[in-house]
User: Fold these one by one.
Assistant:
Number 1:
Amino acid sequence: MLAEKEERVRKLFVTDQINDKGIYGVVFCDAGHKQLICVDDHYVSRQGRTIFSQNKEPEMWVMVLEKAWAKLFKSYERTNGGMTERSVMSLTGAPYAIMYSGRSSWNGVWE
């Protein structure tokens, strides 16, 4: 949904231009409030390859987004797992709700 349209991803970033200071801003919607997270362009790497996200193309937006996401949650480790709904809300600003059916199985839920 977010990645289907490039402009949705671009809206997360303060700018899409590389700058000589190496500082980038990403705007998330955290708990219903827009929050600017600033990160630098230094990434954890080993033998010339980044340890976390990696791009096939020479783009850095994925690494900037991932680093800002980790900063929002105070560490890379705390971003592992979790609820998809929280990610969707933080990236799009869209609200979400979790509904429980009270069933022990999903069989027949849509019938």
Number 2:
Amino acid sequence: MTRLKINGVDEEVAATTIAQLLVARGIDPAARFLAVAVNGAVVRRTSWDEAVFNTGRGRDRPAVAGRVTLRHCEQSEAISQ
């Protein structure tokens, strides 16, 4: 399990990648108007399957850890912003 702060709430998650985290939370990673930031930096959608949450083990894949911000808005909300 990995400890993350997701949208301001401390959580223990079994997911090891951003894509797995989204699916575990019932969010379709292919959904439009969806953004993910880790420690304040937006993570490109093309990296969601590869970037692993830093568990302190191994250095063979890109690692992310810490604060995760998930933002999913409706199309009408995205257009008005």
